[in-house]
Write a structure and sequence with these properties.
Elements: E1 33-37, E2 41-46, E3 52-56, E4 61-65, E5 71-76, E6 81-86, E7 92-96, E8 105-109, E9 115-119, E10 121-122, E11 125-126, E12 133-135, E13 141-144, E14 167-172, E15 175-180, E16 187-192, E17 198-204, E18 213-220, E19 226-236, E20 246-248, E21 254-258, E22 276-280, E23 286-291, E24 297-303, E25 309-314, E26 317-322
């Protein structure tokens, strides 16, 4: 399938959010470009072959958009994959998050096409529903493990019987450590700063208006653990739709997908923060807002040969926009 339409929208630095008087990474002349359409998209990632990969969750597929704009089915029966990323060897990591227990796992697609299960349980109990992933400079994989919708089959609980929606690190296949538990309510997107000093976690629970819709920063230690007491709130979306996925540029700024163009009561009612990409510094300053006309904006990733194109998944569409700063992609770091 080849994309047939190109929609454009001028990048806005206005809106209801006050923005910092800082250099904005996306030019006011940059236009949002429609790249393709499937059922419901998530988890974009880019490969130097010129392919952009993204998840088509309802159809249990991973799609591939090639350099010519053609969209292909890359993988079927993908376990309702949500987030994807590449490890230091260029192998795709997939957060297979839905359906039967056998599909709740983190996998690695080997270069020969075979699949290796990296994590499907912790301390003998099935993980919840892996959502998003990132890789550090040592090749360790980090993933979030929330549970949206039904709680049936949720096995991760602490000694007091409280449900745990945690953040985990994979050192090698089957060697899994939990690095965050109750510090966040429902972890979603995840990223690591270019200097490896910080772990960022999108905390997005939307059961009721008082739930967390927040972006957190934690100090990341060299051994892959985090300092829980270092937890710092960077941004709060209040009772609007909170942060989903994110990407990081080479200057350490976060590009966080969040917001709704229309309220969704009763859980998300304020409608102050519109759907788009929120560009936030590592200190928590909002420097730019990139509006996206489609609700349910889900994730973003940097790509193209200069890593200056931001690919954005929202609803059933894949979008892109050019930026003035290259993205940080650990496995492509020179």
């Amino acid at each position: 399938m080849k994309y047939l339409l190109v929609f454009s929208l001028m990048v806005s630095a206005s809106g209801r959010c006050s923005l910092a008087a800082d250099s904005q990474p996306v030019s006011a002349d940059a236009r949002l470009k429609f790249e393709g359409k499937v059922a419901f998209v998530e988890g974009p990632s880019w490969h130097p072959t010129g392919n952009v990969y993204f998840s088509d969750i309802p159809n249990e597929r991973i799609m591939r958009r090639d350099r010519n704009g053609e969209i292909h089915v890359f993988r079927t029966s993908s376990g309702f994959t949500n987030g994807t990323c590449f490890d230091l060897q260029g192998r795709m990591i997939c957060c297979e998050g839905g359906g039967a227990p056998s599909k709740r796992r983190v996998t690695r697609l080997e270069l020969d096409g075979t699949i290796t299960v990296l994590a499907d349980s912790f301390e003998g109990k099935k993980i919840n529903s892996p959502n998003d992933c990132t890789v550090d400079a040592k090749g360790r994989v980090y993933f979030t493990d929330p549970r949206y919708r039904s709680r049936v089959g949720l096995e991760q609980v602490d000694a007091a019987g409280r449900e745990v929606e945690g953040v985990y690190r994979i050192d090698e296949a089957g060697k899994v450590s939990r690095i965050l538990s109750h510090e966040v309510q429902r972890p979603n997107g995840i990223a690591i700063s270019p200097d490896q000093k910080f772990l960022y976690v999108a905390d997005n629970r939307n059961d009721k208006p008082t739930d967390n819709r927040k972006l957190w920063r934690f100090n990341l230690k060299t051994d892959g653990t985090v300092d829980a007491i270092s937890q710092k709130l960077l941004f709060d979306w209040g009772s609007d739709r909170g942060p989903d996925g994110m990407a990081v540029d080479s200057k350490g700024r976060l590009y966080v997908t969040a917001g709704f163009n229309n309220p969704e009561p009763p859980a998300q009612t304020a409608n102050k923060f519109k759907a788009g990409v929120y560009v936030i510094t590592f200190e928590g300053t909002l420097v730019q807002f990139i509006p996206v006309p489609t609700d349910m904006i889900t994730n973003c990733a940097f790509g193209d040969d200069d890593l200056k194109t931001l690919y954005i998944t929202a609803g059933h569409k894949l979008w892109s926009i050019r930026t003035g700063t290259a993205g940080h992609v650990e496995w492509l770091k020179k």
